[in-house]
Amino acid sequence: MSIKNNIEQVLSRINTTKVQCGARQPVQLIAVSKTQPLNKIVDAHNNGITQIGENKIQEAVEKFTKKDVPRGLKKRFIGHLQSNKINKCLQLFDTVDSIDSLRLIKKLNKKAGDLGKTIPALLEINTTGETQKNGFDPEDIDAILASLSFENIAVCGLMTLGPSSKKTTETRMAFKRLRDLKDEINRQAEGPPITELSMGMTGDLEIGIEEGSTMVRIGTGIFGERQAPQNKRNNN
User: Fold this and answer.
1) What is the CATH architecture of 3-223?
2) Which tens digits make up the pLDDT trace of 115-141?
3) Structural domain spans, the chain
4) For the segment 4-31, what is each residue's pLDDT rounded down to a tens digit?
5) Cβ atoms of residues 137 and 93 within 8 Å
């Protein structure tokens, strides 16, 4: 199936879910293009995709420094960001959707200030408690609230990953926990409310939307199976 048909199918799933569950929130479609070549990104953009997510800095360098990168494409960083890659990340990406610690946001804020930028961002929350995953502990409300106060990082929402088990009940619980956390933050925070919830991927976008997602991150549902990496080096 073509990328065009895949996009149409994903949009149909989003719209059908919204109708069936009565969801009224807008849902943004983020195409996750990790391991996919630039020509597939161009194809997706030509068929209506305006936002893509990448999770490796070096891979993004190889793609986004080419002259045929579509103009107006919003590039979102969605992976674990190492401190020594912050400068390059802020040069390449429009948003950072995976800020996973107070330590990281402090460093991002300083570098963004040095560049004279204000960076839109999401906080990554580990709602499943799995030790192999990054993210703020949802119980650490003080650190999360502190992350909303930085001058050069404009936190507009939260992001999470579903459980590795893929069990529907556990996925729904993780997504509901993110929605509840957003509500709690907005009760306690003094500034503007956060509005975005990035949760739901190809296999569980329906659950994400049912639980209030405003962004779904779709990789294989748009591009097909991931391309095998050319080498095994760590290219974050």
Assistant:
1) Alpha-Beta Barrel (3.20)
2) 999 999 999 999 999 999 999 999 999
3) 3-223
4) 999 999 999 999 999 999 999 999 999 9
5) no
Alpha-carbon separation of residue 184 from 177, 188, 217 (angstroms): 10, 6, 24
Contacts (Cβ under 8 Å, ≥6 apart) of 2: none
Within 13 Å of residue 132, how many CA atoms lie on the same side as its CB? 5
Measured CA to CA in angstroms, residue 69 lies from 17, 46, 176, 233 at distances of 32, 12, 36, 25
Nearest to 113 by CA among 93, 86, 81: 86
Distance CA 42, CA 196 (A): 26
**Residue 200 token pair:** 């739901």
Other CB atoms within 10 A of residue 213 CB: 29
CB 162 within 8 A of CB 204: yes
- Tell me the CA distances in angstroms from 20 to 13, 207, 230, one per residue in order: 10, 12, 42
Backbone phi and psi for residue 44, each to the nearest 5 degrees, phi listed first: -65, -45
Q: At what angle do helices 38-46 and 3-21 cross, to 10 degrees?
A: 60
Torsion angles phi and psi, residue 204, rounded to 5: -140, 25
**List of residues 6+ apart from 7 with CB closer than 8 A:** 29, 31, 44, 47, 48, 49, 222
Q: Which amino acid is at 177?
A: R
